[in-house]
Amino acid sequence: MSNKYSFFSLLKNAFTYHENWQRAWRDPEPKKEYDTVIIGGGGHGLATAFYLAKKHNMRNIAVVEKGWIGGGNTGRNTTIIRSNYLWDASAGLYDHALKIWEGLSQELNYNVMFSQRGVMNLAHNLQDVRDLKRRTHANRLNGIDAVYLNTEQVKKFCPIINTSQDIRYPVLGGTLQRRAGTARHDAVAWGYARGADEMGVDIIQNCEVKGIKRNGDAVEGIETTKGFIKAKKIGVVAAGHSSVIANMAGLKLPLESKPLQALVSEPVKPIIDTVVMSNAVHAYVSQSDKGELVIGAGTDDYISYSQKGSHDIVEGTLNAILELYPIFSRMRMLRQWGGIVDICPDASPIISKTSVKGLYFNCGWGTGGFKATPGSGDLFAHTIANDEPHKLNAAFNLNRFISGDLVDEHGAAAVAH
Amino acid sequence: MSKNLRFKSSKLVDETYRISFKFNNKTYYGYKGDTLASALLANDVHLVGRSFKYHRPRGIMTAGSEEPNAIIQLHDNTSRTEPNVRATEIEIYEGLVASSQNCWPSVDFDIGGINNILSPLLPAGFYYKTFMWPKSFWEKYEYFIRKSAGLGKSPKEADPDIYEHRYIHCDVLIIGAGISGIMAAKMAAKNGLKTLLVDEKSFLGGSTIYDNSEFLKINNQITSSWLEKEINEISKLKNLEIKTRTSVAAFHGYNFLLARENLTDHLPISQRKNKVRHRLLKIRAKKVISATGAIERPLIFDNNDRPGILLSSAVKKYIDLYGVACGENNILFTNNDTAYETAMSMVQRGIKVNAIIDNREEIVSKLSYEVEKNNIKIFKGYTVVDTYGYKRINGLSIMQLSKDGQKVIGKKIKLSCDSLGVSGGWTPAVHLFTQSGGKLKFRENDQVFIPNKYPSDQLSIGSCNGDFSLEEITTNTILSVKKFLNINDIDYNTFEIITGINKSKRNIWLLPSDKILGKTKSFVDYQNDATAKDIKLALREGFRSIEHVKRYTTTGMGTDQGKLGNMHALGIISETAGTKMGEHGTTTFRPPYTPLTFGTIVGRNVGEFFDIIRRTPIHDWHVTNNAKFENVGQWKRAWYYPKANENMHQAVQRESKAARECAGILDASTLGKIDIQGTDASEFLNRVYTNAWSKLAIGKCRYGLMLNEDGMVYDDGVTSRLDENHYIMTTTTGGAANVLGKLEDYLQTEWPELDVYLSSVTDHYATISVCGPHSKKIVSKVIPDLDFSDEKFPHMSFKNAKIDQIKCRVMRISFTGEQSYEINIQSNYGKSVWEKCIEAGKDFNITPYGTETMHLLRAEKGFIIVGQDTDATMTPIDLQMDWIVSKKKYDFIGKRSLYRSDTIKDDRKQLVGLLTENPEEVLEEGAQIVADIKKSPIEMLGHVTSSYYSPNLNKSIALGVVKGGKKMLGQKLIIPMENKNINVTVADPVFLDKEGERLNANL
Amino acid sequence: MFLINCPFCGEREQSEFKAGGEAHIERPKQPTELSDDEWAEFLFMRKNIKGVQFERWNHAHGCRKWFNIARDTSNDQIKAVYKMGEKPPVK
């Protein structure tokens, strides 16, 4: 690599006042034609392009992004990574991703700061306990490192949680996946972009897709704000805007796009060293390397592309945070923001071919797509390159909504992914 | 104190009221009215904290909420401790204790300062490029990164303060009580509009209120005097509510705003007890007027961050408002006239101004002439190229600017000083406007973004709208407010402005230096230590959009959210990239405007008010009788009733046995109850339940199963026909609200032609279930007039009756498999009827049982609990409940979905009974079920949904779902646990009394 | 949080209402006649429009009536409110 990152390159560049660093990616004008065009320059889209180039030896690829790369849900999520999903298909998918995460910084030569600080899910009622135990048993048999904790063990692992049994919904137990954790969201997009660019992928920013041109049952290309781009294959990884793109191709998807909000506190010295999620009272929190408490709120129940949610959702989330962490009452919210999440009826994603030849969709990640980024890109690349799914994403086809063979992850995903 | 930095008769400070406070363990004195910042400055303390990344010494830079540097920890190691408090915002009170943050061992000597020396190795985004080798070491690196990051410390104890919310609906909300806000408030309120005026400061009048300059006059009065009269006048207006110390945090769509009213933070702690600390105002305003003012810009030059360097307007504020000089030996550095106003304030007080360094070559205002008359040296066309002094500025050097402003020329001149006031002009505070969805436009001549398109019924006035001169402010405020509020009658008909200020400005985003950029530290974001060269590095590496640059360099990501430096970042980007301002985005200002305490957002919804508690009418009896409770949705349900020395298992075994052998009594009041009436009620039930209802006789009850449209089991319960066109439906406890919602939805939207009316009556009735072989005797005693014979009152029927003249309904239905009667009576009689039953059952060992025993008893009978034995993937066929799915009915909710290619498969997961090889071994609910333990990967066939030790069968029983389980009766399966494998046999899910004889069994 | 003008109660906070998704998807009168594909179209497939969408809302914490609104999902501005059974307003 011409531009390898390491401590030594940092040291070397310090002598020239860092004025000789190369561009992390080019800023090319689109070519007339590509073998594959990926619509959407978020983590999933860039990862797809990266693996198409790396594993399937494709070079003539473009990623088109209407804004700036990583500016959608990639840059707006709370960066939780875990694979403790209930069903075999989901466990396979998310653990595939988790395994890639474990070597991703080295694979990309870009520190994505994947930090395996563990993710704990709390139980607050008897059915929560049953559900979490069920999930833990399933995880164990699927080779996923989840353990069930009783209340004392929960307290021991994260001492600042209020485990008093006198609170409204006391903590009755929890599960812990130690290999789970967080990563630096921007770095994932940038690292994949840099890697893909190096292999010749054109990353075209500020290029909005205005139409999908079809020739009968097959795709022909895309109309964009930078002109028409011919493409043999089109992979759509547009998250909240997936339906908008689908409608351009004359398709309907089983998706609803809803506001999801998150917030951070002001930065403080380390106070919580893991990720704690609670579906029942709806609060999840971790602390970034910068020191901010990163808190995820829930979705609103209406469709919206405004990237704004209602204040009630934020208020409800903080109610729950203070129920579980009364010590945070005097902490302050620094920033709050919203994203648009595309949600499937079964809370599982779609990585699938469509009825249109050469048109593929990777969407429906709802509130929890970030964790799957590397796996999703890898499997989607496989699906596009081979025109058929990998066995790990076979279950996540569009046909399941017709046959009824859903992968219902509401329990594992809930609102708080 | 050697220096005299305090002057008498300032605007805010009460010199007769001395206050002591502690900063970094040292006691200081200030006066009532001081902020912590003004009090520290009066004590010649400039070094307040250390920066985030390089741990550079930092001082007070501003006099307001935009402060990036002077942030402190308040009351460390107490329950009221608070990190990252701005010294410029907190008003001092007796007993205030503050300390510096992000430094160790002290702010004076901070080990972290080594980062400043290492800074060549720590350019923007350095962490993305390193710490990758060896792979396993990231966690170790990260540990240190985390430790050195963060600023203050989180509290460790619960918050002793209370918070509350208030809803306000008004005609006009005016944000900011500076001159334009005051004028707008007067116009609005005098015209009869219900008006709310808020300001974040403790006083009204904004920056005009301390303007005593001869160079600014309204109607021949000094502006501050004129404004004081105005304030005096509006404070008497009836329909105007004024709130100070109230900061608008968020401006959402549809003119919904959140503001924090700070009620006690300025009081001594001893006076705060039982008082509300913050009140969150939830404001819905018909119209909003933003008069949020402007924030002075710093200038970007090498080492522009030293303690002692302040905004020039802040220097002026400290003098005029607090009577505090920031130094004895002052220099001002500016590119516009603002610094000259500061200079005149200093001259008035006799504070020494060494020099003014002005980027402009030509300076033409009356004000500047006046300054020159006072023998203050002005360096025209010069710029500061460096500053000196580690913990406090002690000097600087200047050079002349080239004609194009891109280079410095000539000789370097060194000047000494102990304070430097800088002014880069003004940035309209458009944060709230953009939060609301407003779009900005860029004004070239003075390089500012101003409001362009309003997304809601709102208006921006004054300097937040880009009107900086007093003339523009007053004229435009009057015109635009008049039009916006559609009013004619105003007081401001004659307006004469005298001003000595010129609007000229020489805007250079990044001032040139004699050093190469790589050797400079020109801070753009002071708190996060993002410098101009960091921004240029980001651009060089391909980060083009402002959002990329922000994230890569962390510019604007500090607790001040870039209020000072964001514009310069944009400016440097556009200059470097050769693009127009705003082309790479303007950065979105996200709520809140200033950080908002979690406790404030939450208000009273903490502790017992976190979520409402629903209690049954019999709740108190359960409490008195030592019940343990289970949360079911919002309900508190009696879980079990342990006797002395009993654990849960023992209590449940006893309760379960008693219910089958004698009598049990259960509070079932939490079950949802929906009253259904109308001529089409039967047809409606036909459509919502899987089974048929038309033929149910009046007086009879029937069990029903409800599906989702996707064919999966949604809810269940018994519905009784009270009359030809009248039913009462029961639902699960947790499902009640959703079922009602779903039924209403179908009724109103899909089947409006049906004559059906629904009403929730859950809370109207107490439901007492008496079961067991003695149940008939007991209820007969309670209701002696009713014929309880099996002939007259068979299973699955109900009777209307009276208990002591009070009407009740008795249903003979059973969830335990025992003979069972459910008395439904008006809620407020619930407890007394319960007590009557207990009394009547005394001789029959009537035993109250809770939900745990209820679950055990129904499991013995193989009755499902929706949500426990089902998840959203189980059809009635999967539950082996084919009998309840009508084949004859043309349609019902979910029917079509039962015939999809996957749902008709016969190897779906199906409900079965499970018996353990060892009858003493009780399975864990949630445990997975497999057939072949050696297979890899292990194929999971299903899981255990319910599991108990049955005292009535003297063995462990369980329900579970197993792939293809229907056909596996008698087959052996394995439950693989962490430490062992448990052998089980697939059994009929009905473990007890399959024939149903006990339903009529009496003792 | 937007304000919704309930056709029965008047203007109220959004928090009083429950969203019911895309409007004018009529439940098929003869589900058994439909193919799996056609049934899935009714069950799951949605336009999920960015722009003016006709959608169902329920005044859950008020009169509990269902009604329709036309709302621009790109900025949450409500263009029209109309009762169940009424034709959507022309854009």
Spell out the blueprint of helices and strands.
The complex is a heterotrimer of chains A (417), B (1003) and C (91).
Chain A: H1 7-15, E1 33-39, H2 43-55, E2 61-64, E3 80-81, H3 88-101, H4 104-108, E4 119-123, H5 126-141, E5 146-149, H6 151-157, E6 173-177, E7 181-182, H7 185-198, E8 202-204, E9 209-215, E10 218-224, E11 227-236, H8 242-248, E12 256-265, E13 275-278, E14 283-287, E15 293-299, H9 311-324, E16 332-343, E17 350-353, E18 359-363, H10 373-386, H11 400-403, H12 410-413
Helix pairs in contact in A: 2-7, 2-10, 3-10
Chain B: E1 14-23, E2 26-32, H1 36-42, E3 49-50, E4 57-58, E5 71-74, E6 82-86, E7 96-100, H2 114-117, H3 126-129, H4 138-148, E8 162-175, H5 179-190, E9 195-198, E10 216-218, E11 221-222, H6 223-234, E12 240-243, E13 246-252, E14 256-262, E15 276-290, E16 294-296, E17 309-311, H7 312-320, E18 330-334, H8 338-349, E19 353-358, H9 366-373, E20 377-380, E21 382-388, E22 395-401, E23 408-416, E24 419-423, E25 426-428, H10 431-435, E26 439-443, E27 448-453, E28 458-460, H11 470-485, E29 497-499, E30 523-525, E31 530-531, H12 532-540, H13 546-553, H14 566-577, E32 596-597, H15 598-602, H16 619-624, E33 628-632, E34 635-640, H17 648-661, E35 663-667, E36 672-677, H18 681-688, E37 701-707, E38 713-723, E39 726-731, H19 736-750, E40 757-760, E41 765-771, H20 775-782, E42 797-803, E43 806-812, E44 820-826, H21 830-841, E45 846-848, H22 851-860, E46 909-916, E47 928-930, E48 940-950, E49 955-963, E50 972-976, E51 981-987
Parallel strand pairs in B: 1-7, 8-9, 8-15, 9-12, 15-28, 17-24, 18-19, 18-24, 19-20, 35-45
Antiparallel strand pairs in B: 1-2, 3-4, 5-6, 5-7, 10-11, 10-29, 13-14, 14-15, 16-25, 21-22, 22-23, 26-27, 30-31, 33-34, 35-41, 36-39, 36-40, 37-38, 38-39, 41-44, 42-43, 43-44, 46-49, 46-51, 47-48, 48-49, 50-51
Helix pairs in contact in B: 5-6, 5-11, 7-8, 8-9, 12-13, 12-14, 17-22, 20-21
Chain C: E1 3-6, E2 10-13, E3 18-22, H1 36-43, E4 52-58, E5 66-72, E6 77-83
Antiparallel strand pairs in C: 1-2, 3-4, 4-5, 5-6
